[in-house]
Amino acid sequence: RYLGKGVLGAVESINSEISEAVRGFEAREQLDLDRTMIELDGTPNKERLGANAILAVSLATARAAAQENQLPLYRYLGTDQSNVVPVPMMNILNG
Question: How far is residue 61's CA from residue 16's CA, in Å, rounded to a whole number?
Answer without folding.
Answer: 17
